[in-house]
Automatic annotation (TrEMBL):
Transmembrane segments: 6-22, 29-48, 68-86, 93-111
Protein name: Uncharacterized protein
Organism: Niallia nealsonii
Domain of life: Bacteria
Lineage: Bacteria, Bacillati, Bacillota, Bacilli, Bacillales
Keywords assigned: Membrane, Transmembrane, Transmembrane helix
């Protein structure tokens, strides 16, 4: 239980301190958009029983994990938008999509393997 709380605290700190101050407006808009998509996706997964969260911040309020799908994963979308290489070649843009496309699945895989924050059932 201490390990899961520590993982969530480190994730929150990483999320809160790496957004540049000059890009806060763009970050807020993209964060809300990514948060809406993540919430719908998580709700569908929990409703159909594809995923369960043994460790949750709000045990009695919801079966969903607050920090992962409301803070951490939407912030990955924010970083994708903020750091997008506008003046780059096609190879660099393809590599950028590949790297950012692997961040969330890799993070989810590591969370499932080494903690009890998330458990994929199917």
């Amino acid at each position: 239980m201490i390990k899961e709380a520590l993982i969530l605290i480190v994730s929150w700190i990483a999320v809160l301190f790496f957004i540049p101050k000059q890009s806060r407006k763009t970050a807020q808009i993209s964060f809300l958009f990514c948060q809406a998509i993540a919430w719908i996706f998580e709700y569908i997964q929990v409703y159909f029983g594809f995923v369960e969260f043994p460790f949750r911040e709000f045990n009695y309020a919801t079966k969903m994990n607050f920090s992962l799908y409301y803070i951490v994963y939407p912030t990955a979308g924010v970083f994708f938008i903020l750091w997008y290489p506008l003046k780059a070649g096609k190879i660099r843009i393809i590599a950028y999509y590949f790297i950012f496309g692997m961040i969330v699945p890799t993070y989810s895989f590591l969370l499932e393997k080494y903690s009890s924050l998330v458990h994929f059932r199917r």
